[in-house]
Amino acid sequence: KTPGPHQHFASTRLRSVEEGLPLVRVANTGISGIIDGYGRVQARLELSTAGALDGDLPKPVAQPTWFSQTGNALGLALAGGLALMGFFLGRLAHGRK
Q1: In the predicted structure, residue 36 carries a pLDDT above the cut 90
Q2: Which of 23, 50, 74, 79 has the fewest CB atoms inside 10 Å of its own CB, making it the most exposed?
Q3: Cβ-contact 42, 58 below 8 angstroms
Q4: Whether the predicted model's global pTM rises above the 0.90 cut
Q5: Residues 6+ apart with CB under 8 A from 21
Q6: How far apart are CA 14 and CA 25, in angstroms?
Q7: Which long-range contacts (CB under 8 A, 24 or more apart) does 57-62 make?
Q8: pLDDT tens-digit profile of 1-27?
Q9: Cα(30)–Cα(45) distance, rounded to whole angstroms?
Q10: Which of 12, 51, 46, 53 is nearest to 31 (CA)?
Q11: What confidence tens digit (pLDDT) does each residue in 39-97 have?
Q12: CA–CA separation, 42 vs 34, rounded Å?
């Protein structure tokens, strides 16, 4: 009865949306489910519930997602740009050129 299993299931849904791919999550005592490429839960087995899910794996989204094509490139570019900006602003603040 902690937020952990709910967070794990939510992050699983996010991964499915990022890649545009369906996903089946299986957890012994956590939340299990079948998720489509849009993050919609098709079938779900709640926390600490014994049982089985039976369902078809949904089809992937029609077009590849932007994230599946570029990965972490935007995040890494932004982090690199901020690091460079911090370096140069630090040098200016201390009077070094």
Answers
A1: yes
A2: 50
A3: yes
A4: no
A5: 37, 60, 61, 68
A6: 12
A7: 57/22, 57/24, 58/22, 58/34, 59/22, 60/20, 60/21, 60/22, 61/20, 61/21, 61/37
A8: 789 999 999 999 999 999 999 999 999
A9: 9
A10: 46
A11: 999 999 999 888 999 899 999 999 989 888 888 998 899 999 999 999 999 888 887 66
A12: 5
3-state secondary structure the chain: CCCHHHHHHHHHHHHHHHHCCCEEECCCCCCEEEECCCCCEEEEECCCCCCCCCCCCCCCCCCCCHHHHHCCHHHHHHHHHHHHHHHHHHHHHCCCC
Give the pLDDT score at 94.
Answer: 83
Instruction: Please give the pLDDT value at position 97.
Output: 61
Q: Tell me which amino acid residue 42 is.
A: Q
Output the six-digit token pair for 19: 């890649």
